[in-house]
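I trust your eye. Have a critical look at both lines of this record:
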Amino acid sequence: MKLPDSPKTPPWLQKIQYITNPLGYMDNAYQRYGDIFNAPIIGNHSRVLLVSDPEGLQQLFTRDSKEFYTPSNGVLQMLVGDNSIFCLEGNRHKRERKLLMPPFHGDRMRGYGQTICDLTEEIFSQLTPGTNFSARSVVQNISIEVILKVVFGIHEGERFHKLKQLMVEWMDSFASPLVSSLLFFPFLRKDFGAKSPWGYFRRLQQQIDQLIYAEIRDKRSKYNPSDTDILTLLMSARDEHGEGMSDEELHDELITLLVAGHETTATAISWALYWVHKQPVILEKLLRELDSLGDSPEPMNIFKLPYLTAVCNETLRIYPVAMLTVPREVKEPVELMGYQLEPGTRVYGCIYLTHRREDLYPQPKEFKPERFLDRQYTPYEFFPFGGGARRCIGEALAIFEMKLVLATILGNYQLELVDNLPVKPQRRGVTIAPAGGVNMVLKERRQNQLFAESTSIST
């Protein structure tokens, strides 16, 4: 079988290039080999194809469970567990997705809106005017509290603070290139005690597991079906056989929401803060739109704002937090983009390269929200949350949170970038985040505050 072309360097060197400079690796390969190329950079597979052609992606996403299936993913299983929706296939995946969908329905989102806005205001109000801060760190603090309160339904107490602390430490460990490399080279995962990189990582994970199982036990013992947090809704869910989710399934899905929810959303919001302050014209236009809502607008009215939506979409386009979709593996011989693929070939949709296509996004390196006002993109041209049956289950909550947090910050506070130097993307585990976290300074509160009358914290 003739595979698409591949970079000529040895696979082990390609993997190092991908770990240390993933965007540079993909850009160079795309320039030489085009819309589909072989990139043996993940796992020990020699047939790993990256696809950035919309027609090829459409074929890939619409043939889930037919010619393609989602194989086990060692890195994801290690992070979120065997029962996570990320790692399931076939009927188990369909069952889990049906159980998970209702809590993320639009009607449910409305109930979480004011909590997100109030949490953002509460945490930002603790910053002292004139002080520098890392936008990503502050937004991560907001995002983890949103997850704990909206998803877990816990608002205070020792477990709340311990879980928050451990999750931040666990996810921050991915900022280390050494820990990131451990995810891609299994032979490096050696536990030499609590102070060794892998030992430290695993001990944090074990402590988080214990706290989550304790919360599940408490929630079951005090079960109240009228509670609106996502954990209670998941406990209430039943499949067609009347069976609910086990403690192990609940644990793995909660870890999935913690990892995929707070980490990625915090990264996206910090990128958005960077871009709008990098280009004052965009910030001014966004503030005019926010001010048009008046004092204390309804969260759903904020969510519907067209320019805010365009800014968030452009943020997710230019540096998508996830570079690749989950993999699809060929079940039986199939043709894709003129190539005959044999069983065992793994195919990834390349989100980053698709979002950088000149034919879809003229001047793709420029941050231009207007492109999303001028054109409607298909799910094969713009797909920051993946596509097909594997599209991220938490997309609705992530977009809702991103818009409300960004609007609350910009509507209430005047911020500036500490310097005008460009912020570069940097690997953070399996995602791409702004290097340095986006250093900003809080100037003062805005006179036209978006939530001037909001003083109470929703519970």
Observations:
- DSSP finds 18 helices and twelve strands in the chain.
- The longest strand covers residues 439-445.
- The two ends are 59 Å apart (CA to CA).
- The chain has one domain: 11-445.
